[in-house]
Amino acid sequence: MPQAYIVDAIRTPVGRKNGALAHLHSADLGATPIKALMQRTGVDPAAVDDVIYGCTETIGPQAGDIARTCWLVAGMPDHVPGVTIDRQCGSGQQAIHFAAQAVMSGTQDLVVAGGVQNLNLIPMGAAMRVGDQFGFPDPFSTSRGWLARYGDQEVSQFRSAEMIARNWNCSRAEMERFALESHRRAIAAMDGGLFAGEIVPVGNFAVDEPPRRDTSLERMASLKTLVDGGSIHAGVASQNTDAAAALLIASETALRDHGLKPRARIHHISVRGADPIWMLTAPIPATRHALQKAGMTLDDIDLFECNEAFASIPMAWMRELGIPHEKVNVNGGAIALGHPLGATGARLMTSLLNELERRRGRYALQTMCEGGGQANVIIIERL
Hints:
The protein has 13 helices and 9 strands.
């Protein structure tokens, strides 16, 4: 089978709520890493076969196939197409999967994959709320088939996070310690310059905004939980943020024809589903499935990324699979660095690739929970 390679990966800094990117048009945001990627790799943009971007809440500035718009706003050739995909929180990672599959199938040789999201301009859930004017309060409750299968129970990531915390015995205090460590790791990485080589500035904005230097266990202990008697609160949840990231995925033919040196080989890609009401548990079976399909064990993996949608998600995943925290989200996760939905998968892969190179490891695995009870898994091999 033809192989797919990561030539390079670049991201913008992450903007926090009401932060530096709050008023930037999503197309201008998404175009930024594309321009930098073309400049840094030296690839002729005219040779790119497709642009695949993840994005959710595709209304307003994110409507109309934002992948295509980002490419054009970046000043790139108009004969190169683009497509926008929505696998909820995993959209950016799915973009990488689709790009790799196109290359592995032999139908394409050079693909830009990534994602963009501005949650300040278009808040999470906006696309669902727009449905109200047409008589649809949510995507599920007016479907007779859905009601017949799942009833009228609440479909909510917040409910899922609480259910997971209870089922895997993740106490509030433990989740707060996990969240504090996420901030500590992210701040240490920032202060150590570990993100500098992967970030392209947006104007004068060049440093991730979300990590909270003043957070503490005492401050988190004072936060109100989302539901009475619950354990999930804002301090143990990912932050709504803005960012974009882009990767260049290439075939062996493209590497040779364009004189490119790959940084990693895509060793495995897969996707699995789980119960949509529990919603956020899918990384557990997805990781098991991926390792089995790849003929690997956890000991083969040097680094892991499991998106911190809520602290209970990676905590349950680590407990269920026996993965040490020392190898997971080593430079902080979404609790500290934010979760720009459609861009997160590409942002995580960019940071994971850089850290794998720094540590001179061989394999890294990335997974993340997604709406609908789904999870992507990708395993890369450093070259």
